[in-house]
Design goal:
By secondary structure, this protein is mainly alpha-helical. The chain contains 14 helices and no strands.
Length: about 250
C-alpha cells in the first residue's frame, strides 16, 4: 500500500507540473491492480480532459459514482460537454457542481456565462449550512431534498454527514445502505458503515469493509482523512489498522 501511495503522489505532482503523459502512465499502472482507485481515476480523467480525449467523460462519471459529493467530477463533465458543443448538458453539470459546492464563485460564474442562474435548491442550502456547522438546519433541507429525489446519493450522503454528529447511527446506516444500493462502490458510504461497525466493536464485519475501502482507496489517503473527520484519529487508527480482507476477484 505504501508503494501505491507514492505512485499516486507522483502522478499528482506530474499532473500539476503539466506532465500529463507521465501522470496518465502512473495512474494506469495503479488502475491495472485497483481498477476503482478513486485518486487514480480523478487524475487520469483530468489528464484525458487536458488531452481532449472523450474517455474523460466516463472517467468523471465513475468518479461521481465513487464519490457522489465531488463537485469537480461534475465540472469536468461540464467542460467536456461544452467543448463538444452541448452547452445545455454543460449547464446541467455546472448546476450540479454548484449544488455540491455553493461556495465556489467560479462555478457560479460558469453557470451565468452559459446563460443560467445559480440554483437555490435544498441541497445547495444544506451544503452551505454544513460548511457553517449547522448540522440540524442542514438536515432539514436534506430531508426535503431526499423526499423530492430519493435516487440522489449525494443528498443521502450529506444527510448522513449532518446527522452523524447528532448521534443518529441507525439512521446513518440506513442512509448509506440506500447509497450503496444506488452506487455499490461509494467510498464514503463504505466508510460510514465501517465507522458504525467499529463503534459497535463488530470487527469481523469491519475487516471486510476495510478491504472494500482498500479497493477504492489503496493506501487510505482519502479514508484516513474522512474517518478522522467522523471520529478523530482514534477511529481512523483503529479502523485502518485492521488486517485487509480483499474480496475475491
Amino acid at each position: 500500500m505504501a508503494e501505491i501511495s507514492e505512485i499516486l503522489r507522483s502522478a499528482r505532482q506530474a499532473a500539476l507540473s503539466n506532465r500529463f503523459d507521465t501522470a496518465a502512465g502512473l495512474c494506469r499502472r495503479v488502475l491495472a491492480t485497483y481498477p476503482n482507485c478513486l485518486i487514480a481515476l480523478r487524475i487520469l480523467a483530468w489528464t484525458e480532459l487536458e488531452g481532449g480525449q472523450d474517455t474523460a467523460r466516463d472517467r468523471f462519471g465513475t468518479c461521481s459514482l465513487l464519490d457522489p459529493e465531488d463537485p469537480l467530477a461534475s465540472v469536468g463533465q461540464g467542460v467536456l460537454h461544452e467543448l463538444q458543443g452541448r452547452s445545455d448538458r454543460a449547464l446541467e453539470h455546472f448546476v450540479r457542481a454548484y449544488e455540491l459546492d455553493p461556495s465556489d464563485d467560479r462555478i457560479a460564474a460558469e453557470i451565468v456565462r452559459l446563460g443560467g442562474t445559480a440554483p437555490q435548491t435544498h441541497l445547495a442550502e444544506a451544503m452551505r449550512r454544513l460548511a457553517k456547522g449547522d448540522n440540524a438546519g442542514a438536515a432539514d433541507h436534506l430531508r426535503a431534498a431526499s423526499a423530492s429525489n430519493q435516487s440522489d446519493p449525494a443528498s443521502c450522503l450529506a444527510l448522513a454527514r449532518a446527522i452523524w454528529p447528532l448521534g443518529g447511527r441507525t439512521q446513518v446506516n440506513n442512509l448509506v445502505i440506500t447509497v450503496l444500493g444506488l452506487s455499490p462502490n461509494c467510498l464514503k458510504a463504505i466508510l460510514y458503515q465501517l465507522a458504525v461497525e467499529v463503534d459497535g466493536r463488530r470487527m469481523l464485519r469491519a475487516r471486510e469493509l476495510v478491504g472494500r475501502a482498500a479497493e477504492i482507496d489503496p493506501g487510505f489517503l482519502l479514508s484516513r482523512q474522512y474517518l478522522g473527520e467522523l471520529g478523530g484519529p482514534f477511529l481512523a487508527d483503529t479502523a485502518l489498522s485492521l488486517p485487509v480482507r480483499l474480496r475475491p476477484a
